[in-house]
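Lab notebook page, bench 4
Experiment: in silico fold of construct C2
Operator: M.H.
Input chain length: 147 residues
Purpose: comparison with the prior construct
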Amino acid sequence: MRGPTRTLVSTGLVLALLGAAAPAVADHRPGPCALDRKEGEGIRNYAKRLIRCATDEWPVRGGAERAICIADAESHLNPKAKARSAEGTYLGLFQHSADAWPDRYRAWTKRRWELDDRALNGRTNAIVTIRMVSVNGWGPWRGVGDC
């Protein structure tokens, strides 16, 4: 190949190689704790990072370690955890009452954050819980585990 065709092919090859070598960039998500799950990261470690981020933003009594301890006792740090009992259904990292969740979501999130409204979303569950606890204390979770 000669001339402009060779230049275009060479340029295209260089651009393709550079594109392949570039790290993936996450989409920007508004609001606090918009953390991406790291490659190979387990869900429990990701949940811990979300909780630490939330407690950095809104301090709580006992800090991140207590919050992680409580979430571990409630859900084993599984954001998709569900439990049913005679009192009702409980959802997510901190096992919020399914009946109370919609009001808690509205009270403790901001529309501009564009958070998922489901209690089974780890980021949302951590933010709602930590904001609640930052203002009101650990009330509903008092005595959970050995935390």
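Observations: Confidence is low (pLDDT under 50) at residues 4-26. The chain has five helices and three strands.
Next step: discuss at group meeting.
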